[in-house]
Amino acid sequence: MAPTTIHLRSECKPLEYRSALTPSAAKALIDHGYTVNVERSPARIFKDEEFEAAGAKLVPEGSWPTVPESHLILGLKELPEEETPLKHTHIQFAHCYKQQSGWQQVLRRFPRGGGILYDLEFLTDPNGRRVAAFGRSAGYCGAALVLLAYSHQLLHPSQPLPSVSAYPNQAALISALKTSLSAALPLASSPPRILIIGALGRCGNGAVDLCKDAGIPSADIIKWDMAETARGGPFAEIVEADIFINCVYLGNEPIPPFVTKPQLEAAGREGRRKLSVVCDVSCDPSSPNNPVRIYDTWTSFTEPTVRVQLAEDDDDAGPPLSVIAIDHLPSLLPREASEDFCRDLLPSLLLLDRRQEAPVWVGAEKLFREKVANLDEEV
Predict the structure, then answer these.
(1) pTM tops 0.85
(2) Known catalytic residue: 274?
(3) Does pLDDT of 70 surpass 60?
(4) What 3-state DSSP class applies to 302?
């Protein structure tokens, strides 16, 4: 019986440096009898030579569409928006299971070509817990960016945060962040009060840890979770904080809004609005279930913030308000984020040669079939 072949594709999303597979994980798969082919990549945080040294075969960038249908295509972010049918089994984040904008066009490509989608966001163990997630990394990096944006706004009130690049490691990020804060905080009347919703989850834990690593006093880190939000929003505490970080995972059920534009405008007229920067780590502005209803577009590492447009007569009633909504925040720390994610994913990858019986993969295919069944009929 031929060995199972895993084909790691090069990521095509701009400024995406992470990898679904690390060189050490590739070696582990090879040691267990898998064949691992790795597309050359100019952007991936791990050098091609690291994979080659681990025993993987290097193949041309973008070659995955032409490989045998039996090869399993492994990646992270979604593929380019095209209508080409997909004939392979793909393992990736597809962002099409929660009725996001354009979800039917994305999902329809798989049944058209006879392919299968194993969505990384929905790989779960028998207890329903995700086997691997970038949650902590996303929260950590999101909190770092929101503090950088807060500092920049104090120093340059009329200028948006400029483009940001990936950091080689966590120590470099924290050093840069402390330098930025030390220059900006003397301009503030007090340290920023930071409200984190979803603080008890993996993402929220990451955000809390970053704030502590950056030197924010614990008393100024307001940690909310289900108990605090049970009464339903909007919440006055958000507009009265300096920074808001949303770390709540968006499911299929609507969530009452945490914050709205009318609420912000009313707080501005009353002189209560302190909120100046929001990081929506959940980052799904097109979802009908999005509880941060003050923006409608994604941002990027090239343009990290978007200004919230409030009513004209409220423009001076509080500081400028910006939102960070980057859907691949962990790319700010791509090496460590990839290593953490792949360490958790590897046990499931080692079961791919038995995916017809391994619960994690059986469940993923079952969910795929259910989602495909919900597609509108093609005319």
Answers:
(1) yes
(2) no
(3) yes
(4) coil
